[in-house]
Design a protein that fits this description.
By secondary structure, the protein is an alpha+beta fold. It is built from 15 helices and 17 strands. A six-stranded mixed β-sheet has the order 3-2-1-4-6-5, with helices on both faces. Strands 7-8-11-10-9 form a five-stranded antiparallel β-sheet. Strands 12-14-15-16 form a four-stranded antiparallel β-sheet, with no helix packed on it.
Length: about 400
């Protein structure tokens, strides 16, 4: 068994092909990954996202389909068709790719998706983040595994060099597609790739940048553990899903831990994939004593009775969803009442007016406005958190441990 294959098997030691999907663009890295995974046997499935941004993209997806057929691997093409041509194209494409792949995995009962990122990609990522002034988390690079919801993203080739994978394919007479954008210096990643060739004389090599990422991952783990300890000592989660941070304990902690805990709180409440910008976090904390009722990342942040209180911002909640789905990233039905409901949606002003005893719950009006309620054709059926249960119950998907779960980001 080659070093390439040994490294892949080590990364996937507890992940069978039966629950694994592989994202294949047609480039050398992902084609090599497909080839290696196909030799493991089992019910591997492959997927290609066609962003439709180049005339050749549909043809390239078809070529991947032929390659997968040759290996006996079922293949699906997902097309990105809902871009409104506003905002940052690269970011929009990345978000769409994640969404399309996540939905595909759910349909296929896939728990892990393998990505073809290499040691070269890791070094380029660290260099790019260094240029952006990233801290420990950014310089830790890409994680070998990252879980988001029920899906885990796996990078089993982070030990491999790009040139090794090309040699692997040439030796086996396997063809791949060279994307012309991989040589276009208008993209930051290509600039980083070209810069690495010049930085070698200074000792800034791919191997050393990847080693830096490994050390930063260790540092990140230590910081996450310390943030967990801080959360245990100062954070309380109410039944209505708001987070209360004891301000004295919170303010006594080092800035790095305070920023991490507040950031994780905002992400957990809003369901946002990424952290708010560091400057925005720092600004909120700096203004805490003089400005009450700040908003950030889809949340409202207030200071009250010795606590920093973080609540969902009512104007940012998710749209209505079916009663058997997760609403606003956190809420699930646990008991159903005798009267049928069709959707979960925010209670809002209209719904709260129908909850005569909402004050008896002890929850603030603001948090109840953004709380989940059960509706049918515009009629309020139940608002369990606002004192109008009518046999229905709704709870946080991961209970009050959800915040602590979100603190472990890798």
């Amino acid at each position: 068994m080659s070093d390439l294959t040994k490294g892949l098997e080590l990364a996937l030691s507890d992940i069978p092909n039966d629950t694994l999907g592989v994202a294949v663009s047609g480039g050398g890295d992902s084609v090599a990954l497909l080839h290696m995974l196909a030799t493991r046997g089992g019910d591997l499935r492959a997927v290609t996202v066609d962003h439709g941004l180049r005339d050749e993209s549909a043809e390239e997806a078809a070529q991947v389909a032929v390659l997968c057929q040759h290996h006996g691997v079922p293949h699906t093409v997902l097309k990105w068709e809902d871009w409104d041509k506003s905002g940052n194209l690269q970011d929009a494409a990345r978000q769409a790719r994640l969404r399309l792949l996540t939905d595909w995995a759910a349909r296929e009962n896939i728990t892990h998706i393998a990505l073809g990122h290499t040691l070269d990609d890791q070094a380029e990522t660290v260099l790019l983040r260094l240029a952006r002034g990233s801290g420990v988390d950014g310089l830790s690079g890409m994680a070998a595994q990252r879980t988001a919801g029920t899906l885990t993203w796996v990078r089993p080739l982070l030990h491999a060099r790009r040139e090794e994978l090309r040699a692997y394919l040439v030796e086996r007479d396997v063809k791949w597609i060279d994307d012309p954008s991989n040589d276009d210096p208008k993209y930051d990643r290509i600039k980083a790739r070209q810069a690495l060739a010049l930085l070698t004389d200074l000792g800034i090599t791919i191997d050393r940048l990847a080693a830096t990422a490994d050390r930063m991952q260790d540092a990140r783990s230590a910081l996450e553990a310390a943030t967990q300890t801080l959360a245990n000592s100062c954070a309380e989660i109410t039944d209505a899903g708001e987070v209360q941070l004891n301000i004295n304990t919170f303010n006594a902690a080092p800035d790095e831990l305070r920023f991490r805990l507040l950031s994780a709180t905002l992400q957990w409440i809003s369901g946002a994939t990424y952290r708010p910008r560091f400057d925005s976090l720092r600004g909120v904390l700096n203004r805490m004593g003089e400005e009450n009722g700040q908003t950030l990342h889809g949340c409202v942040i207030r200071s009250h009775s010795g606590n920093i209180i973080v609540r969902r911002e009512v104007s940012k909640v998710a749209p209505p969803c079916p009663v058997d789905a997760v609403w606003d990233h956190r809420w699930v039905i646990t008991e159903r009442g005798p009267k049928s409901a069709k959707t979960i949606a925010t209670l809002g002003e209209e719904g709260l007016r129908e909850c005569e005893n909402w004050r008896d719950t002890g929850h603030a009006r603001e948090v109840l406005l953004a709380s989940p309620a059960l509706w049918a054709d515009g009629q309020l059926i139940a608002a369990p958190l606002a004192g109008m249960a009518n046999g229905w119950a709704i709870e946080l998907k991961y209970g009050k441990k959800g915040l602590h779960k979100s603190l472990m980001t890798r």
